[in-house]
Every structure is written in C-alpha cells, then in structure tokens.
Amino acid sequence: MSKHIRIGGRQSQLAVIQSELVKHLIEEKFPDITCTVFALQTFGDQQQSKPLYSFGGKALWTKELEDLLYDEDEHRRLDIIVHSLKDMPTTLPEGFELGGITKRLDPTDCLVMPQGSPHKTLEELPAGSVVGTSSVRRSAQLKRKYPQLHFESIRGNLHTRLRKLDDPQNVYKCIILASAGMKRLGLEHRITNTFDNSVMYHAVGQGALGIEIRAQDKAMKEILDAVCDTNTTACCVAERQLMRSLEGGCSVPIGVESRYDESTGHLHLGGIVVSVDGKQAVEMSQDLVVKDIMSDSTECGRLLAEKMISNGAREILEEINFDRIDQ
C-alpha cells in the first residue's frame, strides 16, 4: 500500500478545502500514510463569463485532472482526484472509476439575500425581481413556483458571487447557491433560507465529494473504502443512475432527493424533470430495500428513470435547446 498519496483538485478555495478534507480523512484512518494536495486550474474555471449550459458538460471540470492520473512523470502524476460529486460525469472515460464517495454534508440549495435586504423569502420579492443562478435545474424549478420572477446567470466562485450580490449597483435581488459550499467556506451566516423538495429538488450528488481513481487501482480503492460513507454512497449511486438512465448532463433540469436507512435497508429516491420554462414537470419517486449497496442502489435509480420516462421525462429533456434558453 502506498505510503504517500498525491491528491489533485481544482484550485478554487472551496475545492482546496474539499481536497484537504479527503487528506484529513485518509491520514486520520491511516497514520502511516501522508498526503499532498495539488490545486490545479481546469477549463471550466477559466470560463467565468458564460452560463455553464452554453459551453459544455461536466468534463470541463475533470479532463485536465484526469490526464494527470496517468502522467508519465511520477512527480506530476496524481493518485486520486477530489471532485464535487455533482460535477462528475455519471459515465467516466475508459481507464477511470469512481473510487469512493464521502459523507454528504448538506444537499440542499439555499437562498442568499444581499446584506441589508428587507426580504427573507422569494415570495416577498417584487414581481420582476432578478434572481441570480447559472443552473438551469434551479431556474426551471423556481420558474414553476415563482413565474413572476426573472432569472439571470451569475458565475464565479462563491465569494465573487457574494460580492456581486452585495454591490449596490448590481441587478440581483438574491442568488441561489449550494448549502454545502457555503458551509464548507464558513459562510453559513449568509444563508437566508434553504429549500426543501416542495420548492426545489437538489442536484445529483450535491453535498458529497466523489474521489476518482485509475481503473482497477486496488490499493487506492482499499484506502477509500475505509474512509467513505455507506449511507451517502447508497443515495448518490441511485441518484447518478437516475441521471445516467435519463441521459442528463450537469446543466439539464433534473433534480433529486434521497434517503437511506441503514438499519432497515430502505432506500427512497425522488426525482423531478422540469422544462426550462417551468411549465412542464414529471415528479415521481421509487422505494427499494437494499441488500447490496452498489447493485440495488443502481437498480433503484434505473427503476425510477423507467417510471419517469414512461410519464414523459425524456420528451421534456429532448426539447431543451440551450442555444435558445432565455434566462
């Protein structure tokens, strides 16, 4: 077993915190192993001016990092890559695999108002108010509930988005963010409200970290099996299979919610597909008793996808033309 592990991740402050978390989990469990974190820029990090749906999918965050897993130079080669699981493609390229999933922090989305705002909820905002989000999943679900609001893209890391929000000259009356990222950065105090699935289903894998390894790397898999989380794995495997079966990427309006009870083996998976304008939606759920985490969780996601497809989910996804989206 390797005594030194090279951990790669993106170079944003949040990504570095996430990589350091995995470093801590490994070193705490295996005191004889040391880890080094390398923070690297990806193409997705360089594209801060365009909405995510306009220039590609999840590989934007992963391709450069994946290349380093097989780098010929041992001084550059990575052993594992830490991703926000929601940014990981549900199908990885040949030669790579999802080695483990860490314990989920908080999968919800949250509402953040500008400092000094008198408003606490979306209901309180005047008609025509601008909501900042680069996620079609979020804007589609919110258009369904709040058709009187207007949605515009906002990019940048969390601190950049908060600065834009707090600027008195900005157009945004609020922004929508992932609760987990805010909490990992110590920004809980800026969260005005969180959304449950009566308003917004969260993204597949949101709040969890996915650790990518070389395929068939038994040494790394053994280490990750010891530090990753069974409950989160059951939920996220089901969520990722739902998305894979629906053939959805990170920018399409697929939302999920899931619960797993380890004592009974009961897994609940809920999902929603919403048209970009929020006017059409397929919302369903699937329950299954899990005996084998990987195969049964995968089956739960597949069964829910079948039900949703038979009720029109695929037609909604196929009608999306990102070139014509009016945020």
TrEMBL record:
<protein>
    <recommendedName>
        <fullName>Porphobilinogen deaminase</fullName>
        <ecNumber>2.5.1.61</ecNumber>
    </recommendedName>
</protein>
<dbReference type="Pfam" id="PF01379">
    <property type="entry name" value="Porphobil_deam"/>
</dbReference>
<comment type="similarity">
    <text>Belongs to the HMBS family.</text>
</comment>
<keyword id="KW-0808">Transferase</keyword>
<dbReference type="InterPro" id="IPR022418">
    <property type="entry name" value="Porphobilinogen_deaminase_C"/>
</dbReference>
<feature type="domain" description="Porphobilinogen deaminase C-terminal">
    <location>
        <begin position="234"/>
        <end position="309"/>
    </location>
</feature>
<feature type="domain" description="Porphobilinogen deaminase N-terminal">
    <location>
        <begin position="5"/>
        <end position="221"/>
    </location>
</feature>
<dbReference type="InterPro" id="IPR036803">
    <property type="entry name" value="Porphobilinogen_deaminase_C_sf"/>
</dbReference>
<keyword id="KW-0627">Porphyrin biosynthesis</keyword>
<keyword id="KW-0350">Heme biosynthesis</keyword>
<dbReference type="GO" id="GO:0005737">
    <property type="term" value="C:cytoplasm"/>
</dbReference>
<dbReference type="InterPro" id="IPR022417">
    <property type="entry name" value="Porphobilin_deaminase_N"/>
</dbReference>
<comment type="pathway">
    <text>Porphyrin-containing compound metabolism; protoporphyrin-IX biosynthesis; coproporphyrinogen-III from 5-aminolevulinate: step 2/4.</text>
</comment>
<dbReference type="InterPro" id="IPR022419">
    <property type="entry name" value="Porphobilin_deaminase_cofac_BS"/>
</dbReference>
<dbReference type="GO" id="GO:0006782">
    <property type="term" value="P:protoporphyrinogen IX biosynthetic process"/>
</dbReference>
<dbReference type="Pfam" id="PF03900">
    <property type="entry name" value="Porphobil_deamC"/>
</dbReference>
<dbReference type="GO" id="GO:0004418">
    <property type="term" value="F:hydroxymethylbilane synthase activity"/>
</dbReference>
<dbReference type="InterPro" id="IPR000860">
    <property type="entry name" value="HemC"/>
</dbReference>
